[in-house]
Amino acid sequence: MTLWLAKRKPDPSPALQLACRAQHFRRWEIPRSSYPMTRPGYLTWRAKLKSQAATQLSELLTSSEIQPPLSQEEIDRIAALVRKEDLKNDEEAQILEDVACLVFLDDQFDDFEKKSEMDDEKIINILKKTWAKMSPAGHALALQMDMSDRAKLLIQKALGTRNTHQSTTSPPQPPPLESLISTHDFVTVAATFFPPKTYAFVSSAATDGITHRRNSSTYSDITLRPRVLRDVSSISLATTILGQAVSSPIYASPTSLGKTVHPEGEKEIGRACKELGIAQVISTSASFTVSEILDAINSHQQSSFSNHPVFFQLYVDRETHKSEALLSTAFCPPPPGGGGGHAPLPVLFLTVDSPVVGKREADERVPHNPTTTTTINPPMTNSPPTPDTKGSSLGRTTASFLSPSLTWKQTIPWLRSILPKETKLVLKGIQSASDAFLASETPGINGIVLSNHGGRNLDTTPPSIQVLLEIHKFYPQVFDKIDVLIDGGIMRGTDIFKALCLGAKGVGIGRGILWGLGSGYGREGVKRYVGILNDELEITMALCGVTNVGACRAGYVNTSVVDHLLPNSGHP
Ligand SMILES: Cc1cc2nc3c(=O)[nH]c(=O)nc-3n(C[C@H](O)[C@H](O)[C@H](O)COP(=O)(O)O)c2cc1C
Question: Check: CATH 3.20.20.70 for 197-563?
Answer without folding.
Answer: yes
